[in-house]
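fwd from M.: "can u put these together and see what the complex looks like"

so here's what she sent:
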Amino acid sequence: MTAPRNRYQSRTEILQGTLDMLILQTLQWAPRHGYALSKAIRTNSGEILKVDTGSLYPALHRLERKGWIAAEWKTSELGPRLRVYRLTKTGRKQLVSERSRWQRLTTAIAGILNPAKKAGQP
Amino acid sequence: MRFPIWWRKRRNEELSEEIQAHLTLAEREAIETGQTQREAQFAARHEFGNVGLAEEVTRDMWGSRWLADLWQDVRFGLRMLRRSPGFSILAILCLTLGIGANAAVFSWIEGILFRPYPAVVHQERLMALSGMARGETGGTPLSWPDFLDLQRSCTLFDTFFVSKIMGTTLSIGDRAEVTVGSIVSANYFDAIGVHPILGRGFEPGEDLGRNAHPVTVISYQLWKGRFNGDPQIIGKTQRLNNVVHTIVGVAPEGFYGTFVGWAMQFWVPASMEEIFEAGGYKLEDRGALD
C-alpha cells in the first residue's frame, strides 16, 4: 500500500489551461475513452501529471461542444460501453496553435529563469 | 427536433454511464494489481473524487443548463404551491389585486394625463392659453375680443378655439333637468377634428351676433337617452335655460368635450353666451375676464 500512495502524492496537478492541449495531443494518434486518456497522460508524463477526473470530463464535453473532438459510443471486449473521443480537423488546427502558444510561453519562462544564457546579452 | 427535456435526460444517463465505465475500468485494473474487490472499488472512487460534482460541472459544459434549471424551478414551484394551498391562494390573491390596482392606476393615468379627451385628434398638440395681468400671480381668463385678436394675428398655432363649461337647465317636453354643456367658438369641432355623426358642427359666423344663433350640437348620450336615438333629430328643438335651440348635430359616440372629468351633453356657439351666464353679454367687452 505504501508504494502507490507515495507515487500518488508525488504527482503534480496539471497546470491551469494546459489540460485542453494535453487532451488534444493525447488524442492525436488514436481515439481514446476517458479512462484511457487519463492513464495515457499519466504514463506519458512519467507518472508526474495527475489528471483530475473532476476536470477531465468537463473538459472533454467542452472540447466536444467546441467541435475540436468528437465522441462515439463503442462496445468493447472489456464489458461496459465506452464513449470514445477522437480528434477532429478543427481540433488538429487548435492543437497546433496551442502548441506554439505553449512553446512561446516556455521559452519566455526559460529566459527569465536563465537570463545568462540568453543570446545577444552582454 | 429533439425535445430538450428528453434529450437532456438521455444525455444525463449517458454521462452517468460514461463515468461508471471509467470507475469500472479503474476498479478492474486495481484488482489486477492484487487488491480485493472492496479495496479496488474504494480506490477507484477515491481517485475519481466527487462523482456528483463531476457530473454537475460536466453538464454545465452542455450550455443548456439554464433551461434545465428553469424547468426544475417551475416543477419545484408547482409542488410548493400544491403543498400549501392556503398560502398559494393568498399569494395569488395578493398578486391579482396588486396587478389589478396597478393596471387601474395606469389606465387612469393614461386617461387623465396622456389622452384626456377621447375622440379628439392630435391631443399632444392641444395647448391651454390664458392671459396674465400685471401684479397678479397665475393666469387670468381672456376676453372674447382678445381671442379674436389671437385668432387673427398669432401664427404659432394652427387654430384657436374657445370652450367654456357651464351648467344649464335642459327642458325637453315637460321634463327638465340640470345638465352640463359648453359654450364654444364656431370652429370648435373642426379644430379638434370631431365630426358629428348626424347633421353638422357649427358654421363660421355662428359665434357672432348677440343671441343670433340659437343652435346646438347634442352629445351621443343625450341623443340616445332623451331622444331614443331619433334619426330625424336634426331640426328638432330643445330648450336650454328656457330658450329654444335648434338641434343641428349629434356628436360621435365617445366624445365628451374638452373638460377633464366632465361629460358634456351639448354645445352652443359663443353668440348665445348671454343665455347661459349671469352678468350679461360680454363678447364685446375686452375687460371681461371670462
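replying to her w this: The interface with chain B takes residues 33-36, 52-55, 57-58, 60-62, 65, 73, 78-83 of chain A (CB under 8 Å).
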